[in-house]
């Protein structure tokens, strides 16, 4: 399948098969929109067969057939109606995907600028520049049509760890703040637990809760996806074109797992011995492969930074090796760690302990090697290998099992926005988490530009900083809470022991408790107990409920508010319509 993401709630593709429906379901799609009329080609699968397959996999379907080259306004309205009524994310397809992309583009005219629409579709591989005049005409027809905009004190984009933690931390400090969280998902995941699912320690159900049970009381949950930002108007734009105003904006939508960044990966993921703990539905397959493997070659990969938790790729490897060692088959398995970087871990104090396990398990470390392609049926992976002189050659490796950590990027609607830096991340101060240009905007979590490890533990320290500083801006003061760059990575080196890496900016060690109590540079059972028994409850029942034990922010003396911060306070006197 050649799926291209257009918006957070929509991806498009060429014609799919009955088998592809199951793949789409496994990748998290909730619905299908069929834009190709039956009978265009003798070899296409008709829509009835796709609908039947979709029902078997629990997907909703809408048949919106569009004649090639004749996309009418009625077609656009029908497509837009389907987008509103079907659960997200949806996958729309036609013969090549172009009609589906066109329908989306025309449906967004009047909500997004023509340039933004064409840039988005071009980024997905669809050149729709020929639509410019039609898009501009629709945009002109809608000009002035932005009606009254509902506004909140604080709008938070993202209902993950960062978004919910920040909301509840604000309310703990000041009850009654009008907060809206924009989040389309109905499930919330404790993602750090997926490593233990892949290691046979957790059941995946332990890592999932319903979003409704975690939303803080008093917060309005906007069940929609964000499509863009209009910081000059202090507004966010939702997937359906609706706008929401804010005094202060917090951007915390997470990041994108770029499965398309590795040729052939999506087609073979979940079969042919190819797995990844980075997906809720895939982590159990990792454990299934570990249990069934008796010999051969196992590859574990790590892409270029930044990624969620830099230790996660090797955690999967250590737990697999430990299981194989306990079963007595490790001696018959070649284990290779292919890392795009040049070191096993970026903070040198933790390297000696990790190297002892590398030697113990007989792992072959392959640095400066980036996975670029996979052929699951042939059990072959290709890596771009960089030598000491910077020369790159492509090498093939056969495998029996492969655990892949996908490359990771900023979400498209963030990367294409005025809030992004050149790399696509929300451009914020590394200390205050305040945007570098818009003083009433903050960013944290995986979407932020801060050069810290992207971990849930980092969010635990960031959220109180963001919450305090949001209230400062609402009060017309400059932010004075600072974030040290803290991140934590509990490296599961074997079942029952963990190297608890805790560090701040510059690789400075920043242990939560004194090292005489728990030496994080060495593997300990105490750290395993923390990871297995305590951290899930700390996450769901403390962090997401506003408990800030050992996480209270450092405060500096106040300084005068910036012009942009004062602008946010003045916004309360502005009319609730577009400027």
TrEMBL record:
Q: Which cofactor does it need?
A: FAD
Keywords (alphabetical) are: FAD, Flavoprotein, Oxidoreductase, Quinone, Transit peptide
Ranges for the region named Disordered are 557-579
Query: Which GO BP terms apply?
Result: sulfide oxidation, using sulfide:quinone oxidoreductase
The FAD/NAD(P)-binding domain covers 152-272
Matching PANTHER family, A to Z? SULFIDE:QUINONE OXIDOREDUCTASE, SULFIDE:QUINONE OXIDOREDUCTASE, MITOCHONDRIAL
This chain belongs to which protein, by name?
A: Uncharacterized protein
């Amino acid at each position: 399948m050649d799926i291209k993401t257009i918006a957070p709630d929509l991806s498009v593709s060429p014609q799919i098969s009955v088998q592809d429906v199951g793949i789409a379901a496994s990748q998290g799609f909730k619905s299908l929109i069929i834009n190709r009329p039956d009978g265009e080609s003798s070899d296409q699968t008709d829509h009835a067969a796709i609908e039947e397959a979709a029902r078997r996999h629990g997907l909703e379907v809408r048949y919106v057939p569009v004649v090639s080259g004749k996309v009418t306004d009625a077609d656009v309205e029908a497509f837009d109606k389907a987008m509103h009524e079907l659960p997200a994310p949806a996958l729309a397809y036609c013969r090549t995907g172009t009609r589906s992309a066109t329908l989306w583009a025309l449906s967004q005219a009047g909500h997004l600028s023509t340039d933004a629409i064409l840039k988005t579709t071009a980024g997905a591989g669809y050149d729709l520049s020929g639509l410019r005049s039609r898009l501009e005409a629709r945009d002109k027809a809608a000009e002035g049509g932005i009606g009254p905009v509902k506004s909140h004190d604080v709008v938070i984009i993202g209902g993950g760890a960062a978004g919910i933690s920040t909301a509840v931390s604000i309310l703990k400090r000041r009850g009654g703040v009008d907060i809206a969280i924009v989040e389309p998902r109905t499930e919330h995941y404790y993602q750090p637990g997926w490593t233990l699912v892949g290691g046979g320690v957790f059941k995946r159900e332990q890592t999932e809760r319903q979003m409704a049970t975690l939303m803080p009381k008093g917060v309005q949950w906007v069940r929609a996806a964000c499509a863009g930002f209009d910081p000059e108007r202090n507004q966010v734009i939702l997937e359906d074109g609706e706008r929401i105003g804010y005094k202060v904006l917090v951007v915390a939508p997470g990041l994108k797992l770029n499965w398309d960044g590795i040729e052939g990966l999506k087609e073979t993921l979940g079969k042919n011995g190819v797995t990844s703990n980075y997906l809720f539905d895939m982590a159990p397959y990792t454990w299934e492969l570990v249990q069934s493997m008796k010999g051969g070659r196992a590859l574990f990969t790590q892409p270029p930074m930044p990624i969620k938790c830099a230790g996660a790729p090797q955690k999967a490897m250590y737990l697999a090796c430990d299981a194989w060692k306990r079963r007595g088959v490790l001696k018959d398995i070649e284990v290779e760690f292919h890392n795009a970087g040049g070191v096993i871990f970026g903070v040198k104090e933790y390297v000696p302990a990790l190297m002892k396990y590398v030697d113990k398990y007989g792992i072959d470390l392959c640095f400066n090697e980036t996975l670029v392609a996979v052929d699951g049926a042939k059990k072959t992976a290709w890596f771009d290998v960089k030598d000491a002189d910077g020369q790159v050659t492509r090498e093939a490796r056969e495998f029996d099992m492969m655990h892949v950590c996908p490359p990771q990027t900023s979400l498209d609607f963030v990367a294409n926005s005025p809030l992004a830096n050149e790399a696509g991340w929300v451009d914020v101060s590394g200390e205050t988490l305040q945007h570098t240009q818009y003083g009433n905007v903050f960013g944290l979590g995986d979407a932020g530009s801060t050069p810290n490890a992207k971990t849930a533990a980092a969010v635990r320290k960031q959220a109180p900083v963001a919450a305090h500083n949001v209230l400062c801006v609402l009060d017309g003061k400059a932010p004075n809470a600072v974030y040290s760059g803290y991140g934590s990575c509990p490296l599961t080196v074997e079942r029952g022991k963990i190297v608890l890496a805790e560090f701040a900016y510059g690789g400075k060690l920043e242990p939560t408790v004194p090292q005489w109590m728990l030496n994080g540079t060495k593997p300990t059972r105490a750290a395993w107990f923390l990871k297995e028994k305590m951290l899930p409850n700390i996450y769901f029942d403390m962090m997401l409920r506003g408990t800030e034990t050992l996480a209270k922010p450092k405060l500096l003396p106040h300084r005068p508010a910036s012009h942009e911060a004062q602008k946010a306070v003045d916004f309360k006197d502005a009319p609730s319509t577009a400027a």
